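Pasting as-is:
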Amino acid sequence: MIKKLVMFLMFLFISTFVFAQDVQIGLEWDANVEPNLAGYGAYVGDAAGGPYVRFEDILKGTEEVWYTYDATLGTSVTKYFVVDAYNDVGLRSDYSNEVYWTYDMLPIVAATEFAAVLVGDDITFTWKQADIARVKQWKLYSKEGAAEFAELATIEYTGQEGPQYSATETMTVQAGESKTFVFSLVTFTETGVFSPNSAEVSITINKIPPVPVYNLKIRIIAQ
């Protein structure tokens, strides 16, 4: 009997624009000790409790197998896995415990009410996010002028749900310079699906001192 079937994951490929990704699911279990053990069978199904389809046989001494699934954008699929053992005359054990994984490639909406407030060199960003249970992180992007957006920071979702989320970043502008930055926020899920860009906000940091005061005069009033 197979004991302690567990699962681990490896994302083989995620494109820059996620339309599909190959996910490799690893299964491992405790070794059987029967002297006539020949190997194991690994099975996958689309529903809890089966039916299952055997996708690979594994020789004894290798208590691990990998299953690859091509997840496409716009889908959410759950796969269920079990393993059995077979001996040298072909008799098979009962199934192991069942493990499962959901490939959530459904779209996610962009953050809303994205805003920024400047205090000194620090910019505090705030926003709201629907579908928060699926959020892994946000990526903050910035640009100057006609340049392309570049990633400025990754903000991990801490699990503390709230009506509004925030982060603070420091933008360095040298004395004597004035720079205008444009920011946008993108929401990411655990499986790498990302939202459209949020609305853009701009902040100007002006460190150009005012011009000198001219024509200073003195004025005296005698009481």
